[in-house]
Amino acid sequence: MKISPIILFFLSFPLITEAQICRYNLRIFSSFVKTSTVVYGNAPAINSPYLLENSTTNQNLTLDFFEPAGDTAQKRALIIFAHSGGFLNGSSNNQDMQALCDSFSSRGYVTASIGYRLGFNPLSSNASERAVWRGIQDASAAIRFFKNNAALYRIDTANIFLWGSSAGAFMALGVAFVDDVERPSSTYSGFLRPDLGCKDCSGNNYNYSSRVTGVISCWGATKDTSWIQNNNNIPTQLFHGTADATVPFTEGYPFGLSTITYVRGSQQVNQQLDRTNIYHEFFPETGLGHEYWGTSNGTFDPGGPTVYWQDIIFKARNFMLKKMTAAPACGVLPIALTNFNGKLVNDTVNLYWNTAVEINVKEIMVERSADAVHFTQLLVNSAKGINGSGAAYSVFDPNPYSGINYYRLKTVDVDGSYSYSGVLKIKVPVKDKLFITQSYPNPVYDLLNVEIQSDKNQVINLSVFDFTGKLFTTQKIMLRKGVNKTSVPFEKAAGGIYILKIISKEGSGTASLKIIKY
Question: Which ranges in 220-279 belong to alpha helices (H)?
Fold first, then answer.
């Protein structure tokens, strides 16, 4: 049977295989309690501005601690987050780290965003290695702090996870796999540089191992993959964009600077984990760059997080649930969904789902989003299930967004409690297409070449903003239908991260790209 030329996108999946809601799985707490600047250690930190490796001042190491409000559990899984910033900047207050702490504390975890020692000479490979080692030591100190104070913070020490972004991911991989006998020689004493000491003997005197239940590395790397051996069998999850120009996906110099130590990125870490049979999950994202969940040095770009933000949270949640030493506490859900389907016919999205069980369900809401992060209510359906039975539902969205539409179901119980389904993705053809097909070189020194795809003849504004949002340069360009080539001068730009943005004259089409100037 021949299908008529109707654009059709169909997705079907089981949402809930068992009628249960589990701690660490869904958002079961509505708020959190945050305790800021908890001191977890003290260690010699490089003075700013950088002079020499022996120019240090002792610094308190602090963290922000999050726990679910009203939680009575006495042993709770812990996630420690380490921020990005290239060991030069950033803090525990980075927006992405704070948002992750919020997201996972609502699921019943206790979470902490740690600050750690910063500063090194980017013209010295030895100094860059020492900066990473100091970060590894500080992450170890945070782990040992919580193990020592497990009763106070109600920590389940058998379920501690370490999650790092960029520089923080270097730290997470180092804590998991680098032993003291593998310390880089640069971390020992030498001319005008003190011995940094062992991995677990800096920051505080708590006599515990820094071993964790698992690590999550977002766009991280390590100097030497041979450090990864079976004696440190730590489950690992890796996220990395294949076009990352800050931390190499395969191998190379961070930021493209040959003065910094050569590193091996997630692809090579994954290969070594394969060779050693250590449990791991690897998620390479083709064509994506650094911090592709929507941040620059931990600060959300204009427009907020990308669709990958929720995707990474979902995958990390499942990874940690699988690797916990004990099953989380569960209770009965008011509803069990057997499927949630959707298809596009002409310009209308048809949505339908089935329930196997409905207990005290008041209504089921359909919510829609253009970015998989910010959802708004689209429709409300009264519950159809009678006496605990299931039911079938079918609704329509006559005015979907152009591009990707994300749908989810919000089930509301009679007592006001609620839960969410998984997210359904429906693709609607984009009528106006404007996007950047490629840019090179990136990192850039003097001239950036940009190729722009346009579906029509139109005028656009091409603008470049620095990390703070300040306009660096802008130009008006007349595009022809098809691929257009232009260039942007960068020789007068200071080194750092920039956002290149193109906006059509009528404002109907936009595209953006992260650029690194060295």
Answer: 266-276
The residue among 393, 428, 463 that closes a domain is 428
Closest CA to 165 of 290, 284, 253, 48: 290
307 and 381 fall within a common domain: no
Query: Domain span at residue 418?
Result: 333-428
**Count of CB atoms situated within 10 Å of the CB of 278:** 18
Q: Tell me: do 362 and 405 sit in the same domain.
A: yes
Q: What is the pLDDT of residues 432-461, one digit of tens each?
A: 567 776 777 878 888 988 888 787 888 899
Domain closes at, from 262, 288, 323: 323
CB 24 within 8 A of CB 107: yes
- What are the contacts of 382-388 at 24+ separation with CB within 8 A? 383/358, 384/358, 385/335, 385/355, 385/357, 385/358, 385/359, 385/361, 388/357, 388/358, 388/359
The CATH number linked to 158 is 3.40.50.1820
Examine the domain organization and report whether 359 and 484 are in the same domain: no
pLDDT bin (cut points 50, 70, 90) of residue 7 is: very low
Query: What is the per-residue DSSP string for 164-190?
Result: EETHHHHHHHHHHH--GGG--GGGS-B
Instruction: Look at residue 146 and tell me if it is in a domain.
Output: yes
Q: Where are the beta strands (DSSP E) in 99-232?
A: 110-114, 155-165, 214-218, 221-222
Verify that 60 and 81 share a domain, yes or no: yes
For residues 214 and 236, the answer to whether their CB atoms sit within 8 Å is yes
Token pair belonging to 137: 């030591």
Strands 110-114 and 76-82: parallel
Please answer whether residues 97 and 87 qualify as being in contact, where contact means their C-beta atoms are separated by less than 8 angstroms. Answer: no
Cα separation of 101 and 103, whole Å?
A: 6
Residue 1 lies in a domain: no
pLDDT in tens, 240-256: 999 999 999 999 999 99
Question: Residue 329 — pLDDT band, cuts 50, 70, 90?
Answer: low
Token pair recorded at residue 449: 């070449």
Sign of the torsion formed by the C-alpha atoms of 45, 49, 54 and 56: negative
Instruction: Looking at the structure, tell me whether residues 306 and 450 fall in a common domain.
Output: no
Indicate whether 209 pLDDT > 80.
yes
Residue 10, pLDDT score: 30
Judge whether 7 lies within some domain: no
pTM, two decimals, is 0.65
Number of domains in the chain: 3
Cα separation values, 357 from 22, 386, 389, Å: 17, 9, 5
